[in-house]
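Cross-check.
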Amino acid sequence: MSAALEAKLRAFLRSELGVTDDALRADTPLVSSGLVDSAGLVRLAALLERETGRIIPDKDLTADHFDSIAQILAYLAAA
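Predicted model, tokenized:
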């Protein structure tokens, strides 16, 4: 995935979901730690769909795929 997409993802997490910079590493747990709730997860998926032009099925909106920036990017690369 592109560095530009990762930058947009980080900016969205900070500005829209209130994740602080000091807590935002590639391996920071987002969902399992409570930094991103279910509503935030849906908003995050919508952003990724807009940016990539791909549809993310509801069944894929899980901590297995979306619990960290690294997992999100790996999911998008594999799909």
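The CA atoms of residues 65 and 74 lie 8 Å apart. Helices lie at 3-15, 38-52, 63-66, 69-78. Passed to J.P. for a second look.
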